[in-house]
Specification:
single chain, alpha/beta, 4-stranded mixed beta sheet, 4 helices, 10 strands, 33% strand
């Protein structure tokens, strides 16, 4: 093969990879692999892989940014009955790299680790958090003992964060 053709192909590949890295930080783009096989790579989903296992005797508690950043799963045990947890203000989450740009999202699941059904976890919104639920009862932001819920956090354009809660019940 001609030396100029090989150099041209190498430069084209480097340019394509460079574009994917540069543009990929804030939107969905088609990577070279996706261009060949079809599909779109989404670079706006932030995946955390840590697990936070904690308990409390408090009946109300405001979460700090460090309580939720970096964790995909939180195993929480309320030790004295119902506990209301208020999410931190979005202003504290922006500066701590918790989905800092509009359109970015992440998922986090909470497990109520107690077997006492009445020891519930109730969620409340901090400033700038828009809590949503898939339930027909909008005020049901509660996880009974032994159950779980996952939140899909999405940064809005106005810097608020939507926290869409999907609740799961123990079926066995």
């Amino acid at each position: 093969m001609n030396k100029k053709v090989i150099i041209g192909i190498a430069i084209a590949i480097i340019v394509i990879i460079g574009l994917v890295v540069l543009v990929g930080g804030n939107q969905s783009v088609q990577s070279p692999v996706d261009a060949i096989f079809g599909g779109t790579t989404n670079y706006d989903v932030i995946v955390f892989d840590g697990v936070n296992s904690t308990s409390t005797t408090a009946t109300t508690q405001t979460l700090a940014a460090t309580d939720i950043i970096g964790y995909s799963t939180i195993l929480f045990t309320p030790n004295t009955g119902a506990t209301t947890l208020t999410f931190p203000a979005t202003s504290t989450l922006s500066s701590q790299d918790f989905i800092p740009r509009a359109g970015q999202r992440t998922q986090q699941c909470w497990i109520n680790s107690t077997s006492t059904v009445a020891a519930t976890i109730i969620f409340a919104a901090g400033t700038g958090i828009d809590l949503e639920t898939s339930s027909s009862t909008p005020s049901d932001l509660t996880i009974p003992g032994g159950n779980s819920a996952c939140f899909q956090f999405t940064r809005q354009r106005n810097s608020d964060i939507t926290a869409a809660m999907i609740e799961f019940s123990n079926a066995d």
